[in-house]
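Pasting two entries for a bug report.
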Amino acid sequence: MSLGFNVAPVAASSATNAWIFPALFGHIRNSFFAYNYALQWNGRIWRASKFPRKLIVQSAAAFSRTDAWAFGMFYRSENFLVPYNARYNGHAWRKVLLPGEPFAVSAVSRSDMWAVGPSLKTATMAPDKQVIIAMHWTGRSWHTLAIPTR
């Protein structure tokens, strides 16, 4: 049975705080693309919220009803994707700048989250020219760590 949307990222901190990010569809000129909106489960009902942009969510983390993250990108133009990350504060999603474009995220706690991906400076370059970095959230700010090459 099809639910009418693509596989959606999910993040939960408890049985009464879960987020899913189903896809909606839009277009730029003649090209169609999918983007996500946010649905939060409170144990009884789903509540929808919107991102400041048409965000394509790739991964997410949730720590409480007032602390959730969505990592992804948006289309600046027809063929140009830009990294975009957002954090939910209990009322609205706000843009968060990371030092790189997260390809993968792992959250240990609200003050210990890790991401890996190309630096912002090299994210739009060819893959063999990108500088891959580790990013660590300490609860207050993102820090970068160099990744050794072979």
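Entry 2 (this is the one that rendered wrong in the viewer):
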Amino acid sequence: MIPTPSRSWPIILPAALLIAILPITHTVALRMVLLAVTLGLAVHAWLREPTPPLPARKTLLLWAAIAVASLAWSVDREYSRGEVANEIGYAMAAYFGFFVLARSEGDVRRIMLALIAGIVLTSTFGIASLLLHDD
């Protein structure tokens, strides 16, 4: 296999920041902005560069079809429709974005380091809160 060069850090940064803040509560607006930027960069790269086909397409389509079909027996269809749209839409946007943008092992490592940093930050806040507010 021919090694793929890593992307420049600014291209990966929105995706890395998105991964870093996922474990942090009350960051929904920032998550949506970073997801939109990540998706935009991924679409731009996908249109300009040769990209392999998206893996697991059939499985993902089956997953989406089952989720949509589950609306038939849903108790609260409006709520469930919103949940299905949110969960499938956001998950697929992130899946596509990370698939296209993480071209090399180095890119994946940088994104995983951002995830670890987010987990460490969240854990630090949790431990500090426990120590400061011990009742």
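Dev reply: Rendering is fixed now. As a check, the viewer should reflect this: Residues 105-132 form the longest helix (28 residues).
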